[in-house]
Amino acid sequence: MKFLHILFVALAATLAFSCQPKSKSEKEAADATIDSLRRALADSKSESGDLMSTVDAIQEGFRMISEAEGQVSELRAEGAVANRDSILAKMASLQQRLQQNRDLIANLQEQLRNSTQTNEATRRTFENMVAQFQRQLEEKQQTIEALQRTIQQRDATIAQQQGQISDLNTTTQRQQSQISDLEASSSRQNQQIQQQRQALDESQRTTAAQQQQLAQQEAQMNTAYYVFGTKKELKAQNILSGGDVLRSGFNRDYFTKIDIRNTRVINLYSKKAELLTNHPAGSYTLEKNPQKQYVLRINNPQAFWSTSKYLVILVK
Known about the structure:
The protein is of the alpha+beta class.
């Protein structure tokens, strides 16, 4: 440090001066100066040593905090309920170590305020250390708080799951009791149980059939067909006939089947396009892509397909 360097130079100069012949009073004055410089040097070393000792203790504290965080994460990843006490103990230790580091940083600040022998450059170095330690302390505090929230959420989930398991056990026990009563009853009751089981199976089959029917109906409701082609192509499939569109006998297999919930854009690969079927204005737009080819964009599928589930587009 610059201050220590100055002290060493001053001490060397004073020692050199003291080696020259002088009177008793001069010698006593030189000795006093040397003693004073020695004390200043010793004081400076003591202050630096104390500051570094505190810094070492803070760094060791952060190392122990990081180690404890890793242990908590490992215990939490295992997911065993039995680890809860160990996790809580580690969290308590983390908080205690965090407070110890907070106290050590406050102590380091107090040492800097009270230091008299530390030069300005060294003081700034220690002050930068303090600022870094405080930022690190805040980050660790946020990490610990996040761990605490995670543990609380896990405890709540475990409690909920345990409640669900308890309810299921209660329901199972009740059902088992009912089955035991039924099995212990007369043959008529056994027959009733069989009938109930058959009714339940039939109900499940009916429900499955209804669900399948609903799914088919929904799919059918959301099914549409489109085709685009030249006038020659459309006439060849009887889609366009005598100026009319979709008269009876047109080739339905020529159309592309789509789900109107998923298909919003149809590329027409043509620089000219015209809709031959009627669809509400405002429910679609004809746009050109960078290749100057038309693209049909369906903005409101429900409105667009409300008039017809068949779309015919004339392209050139």
